[in-house]
Design goal:
It contains 27 helices and 34 strands. The chain has 815 residues and is an alpha+beta fold. The protein binds one RNA strand of 87 nucleotides through helix 7, helix 10, strand 19, strand 20 and strand 29.
Length: 815
RNA sequence: GCCGGGAUGGCGGAACUGGUAGACGCGCCAGACUCAAAAUCUGGUGAGGGUAACCUCGUGGGAGUUCGAUUCUCCCUCUCGGCACCA
């Protein structure tokens, strides 16, 4: 072996071996336990960033470890290739999005290979390829037939200058990022997927997803937001049609002092015809952002429509206001307002001088201070007619029953979750497979005409989707009646592609169906790894899609991902690495200078996967130094300076073996259960420090050194596979380390005769005692009380209690 | 605004089930090697006090539970992620 560690040679050799013997190509093998490990595939933005390196290192470490544990491991890789950045690049560099994307993929694939990740490259897929998206189009037509895909109007950001729809990130301070024009909200017809039909199952199954972080499950539960409430129909003065609202607090019904409807609500629009102030307000609301954060934080404003709603019990008239915080798309586009018992209603009522009527008081009759804020807790009803004196809980049922009898309301389960809008008015996405016929309406594209191919060779001049201006794309005939018709020119949300790629990896080359029986061998994914930023949207959509595929008979499981690991972000100087902040570090430079193993080791050592990782140049140096130190230790062992002797220090040898096997035990737990590779590496570093001090050149001593070094190489192999490949051979093994088994703990090496216990007095550390492992409690107590420094702290006090924690400590309680 | 995290030496982090706070690494200091430097090796390194043995303080801030709290409970501050068209 080479005396010096030369990472580039070592890595080239190992990678050639893996590729020559197709080490990571897998097929279904019913005789072995399968293990499907998947890291979230990247958007091909140009080159890998540190977040990718971290994500894929974690996935590769898990995969290689499971392989060493004897599993049949599938680890695939692909490209989330549709999306907005390709269009932006097209405008900026005059290059078609397809060309830009494919070139990025070529470059990034080579980067992934250089990092030594053990992917089965045969299964690589790119979502922008028609062979991929055709099956998504196919499934969509099935869902359309089942009524799970439908069209309705929904708001988008509209730039009146560019005549185009903008993504949220293209809106800066309410203005178009390109031309600075004030952006408007516009309602346009769009396609939706009925995820709300699956809300209950998506929620209920979270309880069984024990391999997911509780944090993510909580976020999804809140996102789905199940609540039980009452749908109430208020009358509207002077008309037969009422105004429906949903409330989770029907007990506050007698405190309603106004109603609020969305600016686009039919009642508001109608009233605006006679009310210029209202019309101006509605016009103004069009420039309002569509995202929830903006709506929640903006100033709450409204205008009286002049219309009056009739209270379902009292018949009392309350004003109907139009308010900017009520959105047409959600629920009924109207809410009842109870200022005394809802903080937002309270602030709105204060601002516009609307009445605040208390109808709930606390159970303990304590004052509520309505001059300061709303009283939002539950309590006892007052000023509520025949419901007075009931608790909020009793009143909920009584009021709901009473409303139901008159058919003016009913109990309903409501979800915060809204149906998934999948239409995008953009070019670089999968075409929605629908043909709009003047007489037949929306007609799905027949199977034999799929895929609807997205033209790739397009000129991108400025704004707007090219296919909306290409008659050769959109002009067609109706599959049903044959008349001239137009294709849908909107494309799918890119979350569609990322919602099922994990399944397609199993049936990657199947050209006669979306999936096949191989999916049932591999699924569910045993370990999914990705950023916490995907905790809700991507992970919820993928779960939904899995259930859609299950109900279409394509998969047998209920959930796609059995275990989830959410990795933290990569930071530099405490801030997220980004081009705009100018604090990026290019992983390529790191690999060029130190090699892939140092990059991987640094990523795994610096912090545990779930935490954020702060970049550090000197940390990289440290990782590199460790690999050199490891290399040198093996080299010195393989090329000893002197002949092996016979003079063995058996006690030092026993101690060394005990350290080794304690290390194996602890590192195994870190890999298997905790995913804390930072502590696993730290333990191996400690062992290596001990091995440097272990200078026994007897043949027994050398045998222990050989045993330890073999274990060290095996324990590090998932993290630094190239250097492990080289050292494994240097240690005289036949066969590659990638095919070796994880080391086993020798229980007999762990046995100890004496152990040290800590002695505390009143919880403070005062001394240490050494006892036999099997010493009885009475002996331990006596020794502890006799300890010199302990004596000093108890001599003038009386011992109240002695607590002995076996194997750990003694606490003497004195008073 | 709402939902979910996080906060421990000069820095990244460790302490797994309520039981020795600071493992391991970085940085820094000292020494060895060297003509010298780099590299490498050895030792030290939370703060304060003490010649020393040791003592006091210390895990964002404040309270509480406990023989014992970084760990559990409550309140607060700061910070990060998500909020449905960035992926």
């Amino acid at each position: 072996m080479d005396e010096h560690y030369r990472p580039h040679d070592v890595e080239k050799t190992a990678q050639s071996y893996w590729s020559e013997y197709q080490v990571f190509a897998v097929t279904e093998d019913p005789s072995k336990e399968k293990y499907y490990c998947l890291a979230m595939f990247p958007y091909p933005s140009g080159k890998l960033h540190m977040g990718h390196v971290r994500n894929y290192t974690i996935g590769d470490v898990i995969s290689r470890f499971q392989r060493m544990c004897g599993k049949n491991v599938l680890q695939p890789m692909g490209w989330d290739a549709f999306g907005l950045p390709a269009e932006n690049a097209a405008i900026k560099h005059q290059v078609p999005p397809a060309k830009w994307t494919y070139e990025n993929i070529t470059y990034m694939r080579q980067q992934l290979k250089r990092l030594g990740f053990g992917y089965d490259w045969d299964r690589e897929l790119a979502t922008c390829r028609p062979e991929y998206y055709r099956w998504e189009q196919w499934l969509f037509t099935r869902l359309f037939a089942k009524g799970l895909a439908y069209k309705k109007t929904s708001p988008v950001n509209w730039c009146p200058e560019d005549q185009t729809v903008l993504a949220n990130e293209q809106v800066e301070n309410g203005c178009c990022w390109r031309c600075g024009t004030t952006v408007e909200r516009r309602e346009i017809p769009q396609w939706f997927m009925k995820i709300t039909d699956y809300a209950e199952e998506l929620l209920a199954e979270l309880d069984r997803l024990e391999g997911w972080p509780e944090q993510v499950r909580a976020m999804q539960r809140n996102w789905i937001g199940k609540s039980r409430g009452v749908e109430i129909e208020f009358g509207v003065a002077g008309r037969t049609q009422g105004l429906k609202v949903f409330t989770t607090r029907p007990d506050t019904l007698f405190g309603v002092s106004y109603m609020a409807v969305a600016p686009e609500h039919p009642l508001a629009l109608e009233a605006a015809a006679r009310n210029p102030a209202l019309a101006d307000f509605i016009e103004e609301c069009k420039t309002m952002a569509v995202n929830e954060a903006a709506i929640e934080t903006m100033e709450k404003r409204g205008v009286d429509t002049g219309l009056r709603a009739l209270h379902p019990f009292t018949g009392v008239e309350v004003p109907i206001w139009s308010a900017n915080f009520v959105l047409m798309g959600y629920g009924e586009g109207a809410v009842m307002a109870v200022p005394a018992h809802d903080q937002r209603d309270y602030e709105f009522a204060r601002k516009y001088g609307l009445p605040i009527k208390q109808v709930i008081h606390p159970r303990d009759e304590s004052p509520v201070g309505l001059d300061q804020q709303a009283f939002t807790e539950k309590g006892i009803l007052q000023a509520s007619g025949s419901f007075d004196g009931m608790t909020s809980e009793q009143a909920f049922e009584a009021i709901a029953d009473s409303l139901a009898q008159d058919k003016r309301g009913q109990v309903r389960i409501n979800y915060r979750l809204r149906d998934w809008g999948v239409s995008r008015q953009r070019y670089w996405g999968a075409p929605i497979p629908i043909i709009n016929c003047p007489s037949c309406g929306a007609v799905p594209v027949p199977d034999n005409e799929l895929p609807v191919r997205l033209p790739e060779d397009v000129a991108f001049e400025g704004v707007g989707s090219p296919i909306k201006k290409m008659p050769e794309f959109y002009q067609t005939s109706c599959p049903r009646c044959g008349a001239a018709a137009e294709r849908e020119t909107d494309t799918f949300d890119t979350f569609m592609e990322s919602s099922w790629y994990y399944a397609r990896f199993c049936s990657y080359d199947q050209d006669r169906g979306m999936l096949d029986e191989r999916a049932n061998y591999w699924l569910p994914v045993d370990q999914y790894v990705g950023g916490i930023e995907h905790a809700v949207l991507h992970l919820l959509y993928a779960r939904f899609f899995h259930k859609l595929m299950r109900d279409a008979g394509l998969v047998q499981t209920n959930e796609p991902f059995a275990n989830l690991l959410t990795q933290g972000m990569v930071l530099k100087d405490g801030a997220k690495m980004s081009k705009s902040k100018g604090n990026t570090v290019d992983p390529q430079a790191l690999v060029d200078e130190y090699g892939a193993d140092t990059a991987r080791l640094f990523m795994m050592f610096t912090s545990p996967p779930e935490q954020s990782l702060d970049w550090s140049d000197s940390g990289v140096e440290g990782a590199f130094r460790f690999l050199k130190r490891l290399w040198r230790l093996v080299h010195e062992h393989v090329h000893p300076a002197q002949q092996a002797g016979t003079d063995a220090d058996m006690q030092a040898i026993r101690e060394m073996r005990r350290l080794l096997h304690e290390c194996i035990r602890s590192v195994t737990v870190d890999y298997q259960r905790r995913f804390t590779y930072n502590t696993a590496i730290a333990k191996v570093m400690e062992l290596i420090n001990a091995l440097y001090k272990f200078q026994d050149v007897s043949s027994t001593g050398r045998a222990v050194m050989q045993e330890a070094l073999q274990a060290v190489v095996l324990m590090l192999a998932p993290i630094v596979p190239h250097v492990a490949h080289a050292l494994w051979q240097a240690l005289g093994n036949t066969g590659a380390v990638v095919d070796a088994s994880w080391p086993v703990v020798d229980e007999s090496a762990l046995a100890r005769e004496r152990i040290e216990l800590v002695v505390q007095v009143n919880g403070k550390l005062r001394g240490r005692i050494e006892v036999a492992v099997d010493a009885p409690t009475s002996t331990i107590e006596a020794l502890a009380l006799a300890e010199e420094n302990v004596q000093r702290h108890i001599v003038d006090k009386s011992v109240k209690k002695v607590i002995v924690v076996p194997g750990k400590l003694v606490n003497v309680v004195v008073g």
